[in-house]
Amino acid sequence: MKHQLDLPGRGRLTVDDIPGPPGAPVLVLLHGVALDAELNWSTVVPGLSQRYRVITFDQRGHGQGLQARSPYSLEDCADDAAAVLDALGVGPVIPVGYSLGGMVAQLFWQRHRDLTAGLVLCSTSRNVAGTVWEQSLSWGMPAAVAAIRWTSCVSPFAAAWLPTGADGIAGHLLDARMDGPSRKAALRRMRQVPLTVALDAMHAVSRFSSHRWIDSVDVPTAVLVTRHDQVVAPRRQHRLAECMPTARTVEIDGDHGVFWADPAGFLDGLLQACADVTGRAHESAA
C-alpha cells in the first residue's frame, strides 16, 4: 500500500507499506547512497513481507525522496524515518540499513531509542575514514561538490578526480558479478540521482563515525557481512559487530551490489539476520 505523507517541516513523501502477517514485527528498509528503495530492496521485499510488515521509502535527494539540504545530513535521514513512523502511528521497529542506510540505522537508534526494537546493519561500518583512498575521498568531496555546483558542468570535473566520471561513482558501488544488462539497468537508475547529491551524500558517509557510542547499543542487532565487499571492507563490517555486545554476524557471498547481483543469497542472509533479531527482541519483551 502506498501512502502520501505530509511530514511537518519536511515535505511530502511517498511511502510503501506492505502489511505482512497480522501482528508481524515491522521492518523499515533504509537504502544506500546513489540508490533508491526500489533498486536496493525490490528483489527481497516479497520474501520479507511473508514474515514481516515492511516499510520502504526513498531517502533525501534520492528517487522520490524529500528534498536534500546541503551539506547532506545522515541525522536528517534518521529523523525522516522517525517522522514517517510518527505519521503512520507505528513503532517500535527494526531499521534494516544497507551501506549508508546502515549508518542512518545506527543514528536512528541513537536519536530515537524508544522507536528501536532492534537493528539489522548490512554492508556497513562504524566509519570509513581509515585507508588512503577513503581519506582522499573525504578531503576531495567538498571541492568536487562545490565545483560542480558553481560550474554546472558535471562530466569534465568529475572525470578529473574520478577517471570514469559519474558512471565510475555508480559502477564502483555495484557487484562485479552482475551481468551486462543488469549492470546497465542499475546504472541507468542510479544516474537519476543528481551527481551533486550523490557526492554530498558520499561526503556525509566519509564524515560519519559511531565509534564513540556504538558499544552502547542495547537492542538485539545483526550485522550482515558481504564477504567480498570492495567498498566497505569485510574487516570493517566485522569490527562493527565486535564493538556491539548485542550483535551477531551473518555472512553472505557477494560484493557491495549483492542485492542486485544475487538477490536470492541476499534475501537468505536478510531472513537469517531478521529472524535472529526479532527472536531475541521477542524473548526480551517476554
How does this model look, in words?
With 286 residues, this protein is an alpha/beta fold. It has one domain: Rossmann fold, CATH 3.40.50. It has twelve helices and eight strands. An eight-stranded mixed beta sheet has the order 1-2-4-3-5-6-7-8, with helices on both faces. Helix 3 packs across helix 4, helix 5 runs antiparallel to helix 6 and helix 5 packs antiparallel against helix 9. The longest helix has 23 residues. It is globular. About 10% of the residues have low confidence.
Keywords:
286 residues, Rossmann fold, 46% helix
Specify the structural class.
Answer: alpha/beta
Radius of gyration: 18 Å
Kindly report how far apart the N and C termini lie: 31 Å
Mind describing the biggest β-sheet?
Answer: 8 strands, mixed
Q: Class, according to the CATH hierarchy?
A: Alpha Beta
Could you say what the CATH architecture is?
3-Layer(aba) Sandwich
Rough shape?
globular
User: What's the CATH H-level homologous superfamily?
Assistant: Alpha/Beta hydrolase fold, catalytic domain
What's the pLDDT, averaged over the residues? 85
Query: Helix and strand succession?
Result: EEEHHEHEHEHHHHHEHEHH
Q: Count all strands and give the number.
A: 8
Residues in helices, as a percent range: 40-55%
Low-confidence stretches: 138-167
What fraction strand? Answer: 15-25%
CATH topology: Rossmann fold
As for the number of domains, it is 1
| Assembly state (oligomeric) | single chain
Count of separate DSSP helical elements = 12
| Strand line-up in the sheet with most strands | 1-2-4-3-5-6-7-8
